[in-house]
Amino acid sequence: LATSEFLTHLPKCEHHVHLEGTLEPSLLFQLAHRNNIQLPDDFPKSVEALQYRYQNFKDLQDFLNLYYVGMSVLITEQDFEDLAWAYLEKSSKQGLKHVEAFFDPQGHVDRGIDLELVIGGFRKALVRAEKELGMSTKLIMCLLRHLPPSEGLATIKSFAPYYKKGWIHGMGLDSSEVEFPPELFTSCYQYARSSLPKEVHYTAHAGEEAGSDYVRRSLKCLGISRIDHGVHSADDPELMKQLAERDIMLTVCPLSNKRLQVVDDVSQVPIRKFLEYGVPFSINSDDPAYFGGYILDNYLAVQEAFKLNVDEWIKIAKNSVRGSWVSEKRKKDLY
Ligand code: ES4
Ligand code: ZN
């Protein structure tokens, strides 16, 4: 198909990928062996069994439970580097030119892993991708919203030196959504915005499993300039107008939404509505090893569902560059 050729070569930016979510079953078992990690008794025993399990998530929490077990095999700096490099190399072949990647420091520090080695490993892979793959890269630290905001605050404080060095470029908020509303983290974001370098950008997951009110409330109380997922925004026309007017980009993850049963089918992701209202959005993989597709697979799934024309794709690609947290000079190269 000519369109898949076109989408492969279209320069793509990814703004919503959790590096821990790029852990392929084969690497998971390899690292478990290398690090002598005992997986839980009820954990699938083979690559095939694990892949099968990934096709049957009930909801976000069902996925997160496995995602946190997966993390437990990551121990050394080399593990974090290997993980990120495998993702970057694969995505580069799919036409990825710029990535802003999330990670969950609390998921590692809380099981005794040194923060220095988590950041160090990820950074080595990202710097290598800039040199060898011609990519631009950014790193975004996320707070886990199922943990107490007081611990989020301590995490922000522990990150101050890394933000100052320019190694970390943004802050986000992820994990279980519905039971942990945005207001819980107002003071964390307030503290971060008042104490970290002014170049730091802010985003949060909202409107994935929760409704459009979590998107509205996140914008109101967190001081963020982007929304991760945000698909439920489409239920509120006033919010849609606000997103368009304020130029708030949604980082949409079609295959994730399908696997976590946020939608029954990719065709229910409100892509057409976003285009109609002029709400900027990008297309992303979220947790590609768990959700059955990397960046290009997500673009192709959207194309299969919506049959967009070339002009619409160029508009999407341009918005995705425009919404990136990079210099104007780099944007020009990416357009
Ligand atoms: C996540 Cl899909 C999703 N939603 C919320 N938190 C997450 N962490 C990793 N993937
Ligand atoms: Zn996510």
Structure in words:
It is a single chain. The protein is α/β, with parallel strands linked by helices and 335 residues long. The chain has a single domain, classed as Metal-dependent hydrolases (TIM Barrel, Alpha-Beta Barrel), CATH 3.20.20. Helices cover 52% and strands 14% of the residues. The chain has an eight-stranded parallel sheet. The chain binds 6-chloro-9H-purine and zinc ion. The site of zinc ion has 6 residues, from strand 1.
Protein traits:
335 residues; binds 6-chloro-9H-purine; alpha/beta; 14% strand; binds zinc ion; eight-stranded parallel β-sheet; TIM Barrel
Describe the structure concisely for a colleague:
Its main location: cytoplasm. By secondary structure, the chain is of the alpha/beta class. It has a single domain, classed as TIM Barrel (Alpha-Beta Barrel), CATH 3.20.20.140.
- Per CATH, the architecture is Alpha-Beta Barrel
Task: State the domain count.
Answer: 1
As residue ranges, the low-confidence spans are none
- What's the CATH C level? Alpha Beta
Radius of gyration: 19 Å
CATH fold call = TIM Barrel
Give the neighbour order of strands across the main sheet. Answer: 1-2-3-4-5-6-7-8
Order of helices and strands: HEHHHHEHHEHEHEHEHEHHEHHHH
